[in-house]
Each structure stands twice: as C-alpha cells, then as structure tokens.
User: Fold this.
Amino acid sequence: MSDFDRSNDSGRPTGTAVSPADPPSGPAAPGRFPDVPSIELDGVTFEYPDGTRALDGVSLRIEPGEVVAIVGQNGSGKSTLVKHLNGLLRPASGRVLLGGRDIRDAHVAGLAGRVGLAFQNPDRQLFAGRVSAEVEFGPRNLGLRGAELQRAVAAALEAVGLAGEAAANPYDLGYSRRKLLAIASVLAMRTPVLVFDEPTTGQDARGVACVRSVVAGAVAEGRTVIAISHDMRFVAECFGRVVAMRAGRVVLDGSPSEVFAESHWSELRATYLEPPIAAVVGARLGLGSTPTASGLIAAARAALDGRPAAPGPADSGPNR
Ligand SMILES: Nc1ncnc2c1ncn2[C@@H]1O[C@H](COP(=O)(O)OP(=O)(O)O)[C@@H](O)[C@H]1O
Ligand SMILES: [Mg+2]
Assistant:
C-alpha cells in the first residue's frame, strides 16, 4: 500500500491544521453560492510512486455551475483526476486552478471548504462510530456550531435518505448506504463544488434516485457538480457535459448528444463504454442522437407527426 492509499485521506479537514494562506471561510448559507469557482486543469500529468502514469496531459476547464460526468474504463485515471481538484494529489507537471488561482501551495484543509469529494470507496472516507458524528465532522471543522451545525447534518442525512440512521454505526449500514453516507458527509460541508466518485455504483433504483435528487438539488443551487459514473443512463439524463477518459487522457468532451452520437461509439467502446440504450434505439431508427428516453420519444413523435399516417383502421377513427 502506498502513501496514496492511506485510509484517512478523504480531503476533509483533519483537526485544526489550516495554513494561514487558506483561512477557512466557513460553509455558505443554504441556497447561497456566490463564489462558485471555475476549475481548470492545464496539461496535468501524474505518476504514482510505482511509475504508473495515471494522468497524461489532461487539460479541462469547468465553468461555475456546470454539471459534468466523467466516464471511462476502470483504470483510465478518473479517480486520480478528481483527487487533483481538492489537492489530495498534486500534479507532476501542469497546473490545477480554482477560481483562476493555481492551488499548488493551497493546503488540503483550506481547499476542503471549496471542493467536497466523496470517495469511490466510502470505507476510505468514513471513520466515525456514529452516522451523525461522521456527517458532523466536516462542517464542524469549517466552523459550524450549535443549531446551524445540527441543521446542516440533518439536511445532509435527509438528502440521502439516512435521516433515520443518525445514531447507527456506519459499519452496520450496507455498502451502498455507506456510499450515501459518504455523500452526506460531503453535502454537509456546503461546498460550492461537489465531486462524487462513482456515487451510483452498487446502488439499487432507490439509491440511484437519491443520487439523482442530490445532483439536481445542487445544480438548482448553482453549484458545480462533477461525478464519475459507469451508469450511462444516469450520465445522459442528469449531466450537461460528458468527459470520457482513456489511459490518462480526455478522449471525448461534449454534451450527452455529442458524446453519445453514433459517430463516437467506436471511441466509447475503446474505453469499454456502451452508449445508453435510448441512443442506440434512436440511431437505429434514424432519429439522430437521442441519449435520453425522453429525447428519443420526442424525436420519435416528431418523426411520426411529420409523415403521413400509415393507412389502416386506426386512421379512420374520430381522433385522426
Ligand atoms: N495508489 C496507487 N498506486 C499505484 N497505482 C495506482 C494507484 N491508484 C491508482 N493507480 C493506477 O493508476 C491508474 C488510474 O487509476 P484510477 O485513477 O483509480 O482510475 P479510474 O478511477 O478511472 O478507475 C490505474 O492504472 C491504476 O491501477
Ligand atoms: Mg476510480
């Protein structure tokens, strides 16, 4: 196990070791996100100590309030990329800028109030013996106290459907609910940027619906949301932009309609991704790029309305 695998590297502030250069500003009040920073990666490369080159010249700019999915085969560098956004990993070369400022010298504890990262593996993030203590930890370190702290914790637990589990031990929850708890502990910090590493992996339909509502809620508040996912339907339906990675590089970057268009299927399959089923059906029917079910239905309706109805008994009824 390398230094990069240590179990408490969740990116949340640990204790009071905050550098003077990065004073914690405290979580934003609910519903107000005036300082959502842009994010920029500029030619970022990263190698693990064993020589694995996980990022190979990634350049990417994410505007405030964008909702971005990162997709790609296992090992393509997605988790490594997002760990650069809150300073957990530092580029070997290239730069990461938050709000236009290079975060090279920014302390992880200072960044934690701006970029919240829920880990792919919740067991590397969770450490407390009680659900409520787990969720309290981050906002408390950002300076929240008393009723305000309790409200932040309650709202975060409510958002992931764990309000009834506040007194439980996180390890008595199943894996998928521990993942939701990891998301709650990030939500409670009210960061302007939210990053979820594979939030839908292992979730049943209810868990996926919960993650979708968390994403929708954050987007409605104008926060930036970045999520890694293998669930292409979730990606197509909930994200305005899709970034596909392969071998440490960005290979596709665009709207779901662009990235899931038939012309890109061979590139998608090269990183072991299948386009959403709605995109496949739409392309087979000659309807263009229809990555969502609702888009497919709209395109099918438009196509049917635009051509003469087929002759038959149904056409002789009063509605035709
Ligand atoms: N702690 C580590 N030490 C060495 N190599 C690692 C470590 N973590 C990830 N890697 C390697 O870096 C590459 C990118 O990994 P990762 O960012 O986890 O990809 P993804 O999230 O897309 O599955 C892979 O080859 C992976 O095996
Ligand atoms: Mg990963």
Observations:
- The chain has a mean pLDDT of 88.
- The chain has two domains: 16-273, 276-307.
- Residues 276-307 form one domain.
